[in-house]
From TrEMBL:
The gene is pyrF. Pfam families: OMPdecase. This is Orotidine 5'-phosphate decarboxylase. GO terms for biological process: 'de novo' pyrimidine nucleobase biosynthetic process; 'de novo' UMP biosynthetic process. InterPro entries: Aldolase_TIM, OMPdecase_type-2, OMPdeCOase_dom, RibuloseP-bd_barrel. The active site is at K105 (proton donor). Pathway: Pyrimidine metabolism; UMP biosynthesis via de novo pathway; UMP from orotate: step 2/2. Its EC number is 4.1.1.23. It catalyses: orotidine 5'-phosphate + H(+) = UMP + CO2. It comes from Monoglobus pectinilyticus.
Length: 303
């Protein structure tokens, strides 16, 4: 439920999410060496090192951030061992009370989206039984296949109390190639915003937000301002703060007047803070997460 994310944001007074996008290069050398000494230079060794890194980050952050966002690609890279590490990371974060937004940007024709939706948010049918496979709280979804590709995710959200964030205006430099094209007098991302709004219509939570959120990049503040008006009841996931250059005053455009409405992601700037600022991984990540929280809160006002 988006309500559960909102409550965690309010409890921590922090509208930010820490991205868990772990490349081996981001890990301290001794952490990688220890795992390689035990398991060799193998996917298993890499996955063990990454889980250790994620645990260190989660332990350092869970009492100050409401959510984490593991990016699936950084785990898929290490095959089955990487996927297992992703699942262990999801479980560990949930045990620590964090809301887990799995960033896998899924989306396909309806039938295949249904399989993705069951895999990541709902439960898989096995004979008479149903088992959760990944059991994330939320999933990023690529909605550019249209309504039939998104509806199965919405159904699983309603059935199992989950949420999704659909890509509307992405943070990357080429996002305008398609998303900014004008059609029928307005940009494609605005058409997408109207669809996202419609998909969420039937399921408002108690704080007035729907289970169908939108991804709106921190790097496009003018567009965010428009999108905030088009989708007043939609929660925004705002990536692009920090490493991609988004600033607090930029992300502030994605919030509503009540200080709710958006959660801002940073991955590299938190994970790799120890490389830039010195100190150990966990403490440096915590210091950066606190700095980011205070920076954004001062631009947004109270949560
Ligand atoms: O869906 C996302 O999270 C996402 C959408 C988008 O438009 N831009 C974007 O950067 N992301 C993700 O947000 C994270 C940004 O990471 P940093 O640039 O290291 O903070 C990565 O996991 C990206 O895959």
């Amino acid at each position: 439920m988006i309500d559960s994310l909102i409550e965690k944001i309010q409890e921590k007074k922090n509208p930010t999410v820490a991205g868990l996008d772990p490349k081996l290069d981001y890990l301290p050398e001794e952490m990688v060496k220890k795992a390689f000494d035990e398991y060799g230079e193998t996917f298993k060794g890499a996955a063990e090192a990454i889980f250790e890194f994620n645990k260190t980050l989660i332990d350092a952050l869970y009492d100050i951030v409401p959510a984490v966002k593991p990016q699936s690609a950084y785990y898929e890279m290490y095959g089955i061992d990487g996927i297992e590490c992703l699942k262990k990371t999801i479980n560990y974060a949930k045990e620590k009370g964090l809301y887990v937004i799995l960033d896998a940007k899924r989306g396909d024709i309806g039938a295949t989206s249904e399989a993705y939706a069951k895999a990541y948010l709902g439960k898989t049918d096995i004979g008479e039984k149903q088992e959760p496979a990944f059991d994330a709280d939320s999933l990023t979804v690529n909605p550019y296949l249209g309504t039939d590709g998104v509806q199965p995710f919405v159904e699983q959200c309603l059935k199992f109390g989950k949420s999704i964030f659909a890509l509307v205006k992405t943070s990357n430099k080429s996002s305008g190639e398609i998303q900014d094209l004008i059609s029928g007098g307005k940009p494609i991302y605005e058409h997408m915003a109207e669809l996202v709004k419609g998909w969420g219509m039937d399921n408002f939570g108690k704080y007035g937000y729907t289970q169908v959120g939108a991804v709106v990049g921190a790097t496009y503040p003018e567009q965010a301002e428009v999108l905030r008006r088009v989708m007043p009841h939609t929660y925004f996931l705002v990536p692009g703060y920090g490493a991609q250059g988004g600033k607090a005053e930029d992300v502030a455009k994605s919030f509503n007047g009540d200080g709710l409405g958006a959660i801002v992601n940073a991955s590299r700037s938190i994970m790799c803070a120890y490389k830039k600022n010195g100190g150990e991984v966990g403490q440096a990540a915590r210091d950066e997460a606190i700095r980011m929280r205070d920076d954004i809160m001062s631009a947004v006002g109270a949560v």
